Amino acid sequence: MFCWHEKGSVRLLISMMVLIAISLGGLCFAQDTIRIGLVGPYSGNFSYLGACMEQGARMAIDPFNEKGGILGKKIELVIEDNQSNAGITTQKMMKVIERDKVNFAFVGGGTSCAISAFEIAKREKVLTFSCDANDNSLNGEKANRYTFHIPEPNYEIVKAIAPSILEKYGTKWYFHTADYKWGWDIANTFKAFLKEKGGAVVGEDLIPVEARDFSTYIINVKNAKPDVLVVLQGGMSGVAAQTQYHEFGLAKSVKRTHPLFDHDLWLTIGYDTAKENGIGLVEWDINIGAPGCKEFYKEYKRKYPMSFVPIPMMDTYHSYIAVRETLRVMAELKTTNTQEIIKRLEGRVISDSLTHSPAMIRAEDHQYLRDAYIFEFKSPNEIKFNGDWIKPVKRVAWKELYRPPSIHLNQEPF
Amino acid sequence: MAIDPMASCPSAKESEAWMLGHFLNHLFNGVVLGLLLTVIALGFSLVLGVMEVVNFAHGVLFAIGAYFAFALVKLVGFWWALLISPILVAILGMILESGLIKRIYSLNPLYGLLLTFSIAMGLEGLIKLIWGPMGYSIPAPPFAAGFIDLGFVVYSKYRFIQGVLALFLILALWLFLEKTTYGAVIKAGTISTEMVMALGKNLPRLRTLVFGMGSFLAGIAGVLTAPMWGIRPGIGTEAMMPALVVVVVGGMGSLYGSIIAGQLVGIVTGLTVMFYPRLSDLMMYLLMLVVFLARPRGLMGTKSILEE
Engineered SS bond to A227: which of A93, A119, A172, B276, CB 3.0-4.6 Å? Predict the structure, then answer.
């Protein structure tokens, strides 16, 4: 019971008043800033992605803050670790929305995290970007008026690279598929393409996400004798898979390709293992030769000279684009009103997209449209710096790549 | 372009040989995995037995072993990294024990749990600070790369060497515990630390040594598995959980129990992958449940008074 004459009670009261003052002070501060929520993986199977996304976001934010912010307000990044987990993504999204009052958010950690975030975005009416998942549903049935999808969907990835795989390797394919939504989705898309072209699936192993022992799957594929092994693995499972393919000397008997070959994967496994994979698709890389790439790389090295990743990754690029364009729209419209911003983003053409063709945010399904690049690994004497490992061999312009939208978000009410 | 569906059909004999090879492959995997889990579990079990501390930092010491090896491999090669890295982890372990853990021996066991858990979190944060959140890999040493092809079975050379090294470690530990005076003292310590003290042995030094040994085993297991699993900050947890299962199944503080349970867990996991990979992780927990229900003290744990 509170008693004025007791020292402890007075101390308690003062402490409570100080705490309340700090909380209120925090709220006041929040109203003077534009806050962006980053809900991404800083632990779990994709633990490095959060940091890469943060790098891209800060590269977009800093130029605005150096000029005094937007509407007289500085821009602040609020970071939450979703541990690559969908349930935790939901909690963290609610946290950044309710507690931190973010103006918009961007999310990483895989398809399930993106889907969870999209549901929250719709319910809470908060502009949200997916920056690292590729599932077809993210610009389809799971999308809503408040969500935007930056990475390439699985359908377009397959459409870009599958013809090259067919031409280079042959028609008998074996799949090592990650046993979760992204894996099933992209595998089914590949199989549909292969069937259409008269090829055959000679086998498939559904591999649990946290699998660390691939020896049995390697034996399976050796016995099947396919023309090519198509590796559909991500994160540390992908590292374990590639490491063990190399350990078993798989390349001597079976050709393989890792279609969606993220930077983090080949930087982790090393050049000797990575180059066994022949061709791959990269959504973006500094070596694609597009205008602005070299400057972006220089800025990245200036800002992050000691980064654990020697070159900006795809997720760095995706976050950079998402955050930069949203801030630009805010500055153009001189508003932080979510619905106004969304309307301006719909159909927006981005000429400085660091790709050959100007990119676009399609109004109907909120999908970011940009060119796709097929690459192969450079020979050792072509490599000029750490991370300079790939060279583009084919560019697929986005106008030839993307199928028509299946939804019309721009016609839906807010 | 049609594919002849009959073109690659094997004969009955080829099918049998393939099945046998497939089975043996999974069995070998299970045995090797079991040996690695035993090495990890033995370190944990030693600390638990002598010091009665549930060392949650054991997993992160495993991870640190892998990271030290990653840093050393470029300088001194794989085999020297295999030797030096666990020694460094052992030294780290002894510093942790003499600096922090020894302060909670007289307290409620929960304090040990909390303290080692905090140490684990702190060290994992330190790993991320030094090496970043991205993963790394260490290639198998050149002479151990590739596979052994016996015709009906193909097996990785490196895994074979892993298994041999793990077996060597287990044997070395057994010899130390069974055939040396200090080993006898450690074994006595798992029964009664008070008696060991009463006989004039230096208990604090014993505890530090045991913690160092446990850390060494965690570290060397980390180095051995790094070329297979890759390296990332959270890899300690992946090693810790199966090790805990091995200790529970084998019996808390029982070294022989850990050896038998390690093989059981490894083989069950390895063979499950052959039939239904999605269940492979679950199977070891089911095994633990079955053993726990049938024999709560584990396969070779000490019978409690309540069981009389």
Answer: A172
- Give yes or no: residues A163 and A246 share one domain: yes
A311 contact residues in B (CB cutoff 8 A)? none
Chain B positions touching A241 (Cβ under 8 A) are: none
CA A193 to chain centre: 24
Which residues make Cβ contacts (< 8 Å) with residue A149, sequence separation at least 6? A114, A129, A130, A133, A138, A139, A143, A365, A366, A367, A368
B43 within 8 A of B215, measured Cβ to Cβ: yes
Q: What is the pLDDT along chain B (308 residues), one digit of tens a residue?
A: 333 444 444 566 666 766 777 788 888 888 998 999 999 999 998 888 888 888 999 999 999 999 999 999 989 999 999 999 999 999 999 999 999 998 888 788 888 889 999 999 999 999 988 988 777 888 888 788 777 877 667 778 888 899 999 999 999 999 998 898 888 888 777 777 777 777 777 888 888 999 999 999 999 999 999 988 888 888 888 888 888 999 999 988 788 898 999 999 999 988 887 777 778 778 889 999 999 899 888 888 776 555 54
Question: With contacts defined as CB-CB under 8 Å, which chain A residues touch B127?
Answer: none
How distant is the alpha carbon of residue A401 from its chain centre?
Answer: 19
Cα(B179)–Cα(B173) distance, integer angstroms: 10
Q: Domain with A274 in it: what CATH number? A: 3.40.50.2300
Is A405 domain-assigned? Answer: no
Both A164 and A146 in a single domain? Answer: no
What CATH number is given to the structural domain containing B253? Answer: 1.10.3470
Q: Are A75 and A330 in contact (CB under 8 A)?
A: no
CB contact under 8 A, B146 and A244: no
Last residue of a domain, one of A264, A282, A300: A282
Do A129 and A189 fall into the same domain? Answer: no
Q: Whole-angstrom Cα distance, residue B195 to residue B188?
A: 8
Question: Does residue A329 share a domain with residue A270?
Answer: no
Number of domains in chain B: 1
Residue where the block lists tokens 């908060």:
A126
CB atoms under 10 Å from CB of A63, counted, come to 11
State both tokens at A199.
């090829």
B33 sits in which H/E element? helix B12-51
Residue B1 lies in a domain: no
**Residue B305 included in any domain:** no
Q: How is A219-230 classified by DSSP, letter by letter?
A: HHHHHH--SEEE
Structure tokens at A295: 């400057």
Residues with Cβ within 8 Å of A336's Cβ and at least 6 positions away in sequence, in order, are A34, A71, A103, A330
Q: Are residues A145 and A159 in the same domain?
A: no
Does a structural domain hold residue A132? yes
Tally of domains within chain A: 2
Residue B63 lies in a domain: yes
Mutate to test the interface with B, among A236, A242, A276 (most CBs of B within 10 A): A236
Q: Which of A354, A370, A386 represents a domain boundary (last residue)?
A: A370
Q: How far is A48 from chain B (nearest CA, A)?
A: 5
Is B301 among the domain residues? no
A204-223 residues touching B, CB cutoff 8 A: 205-208, 210-213, 215-216, 219, 222-223
Map residue A171 onto helix, strand or coil. coil
**Full-model pTM:** 0.80
- DSSP characters for B109-126? HHHHHHHHHHHHHHHHHH
- Domain range spanning residue A39? 32-152+290-370
CB contact residues (below 8 A), chain A span 41-60, against chain B: 42-44, 47-48, 50-51
Q: Is A147 helix (H, G, I), strand (E, B) or coil?
A: strand
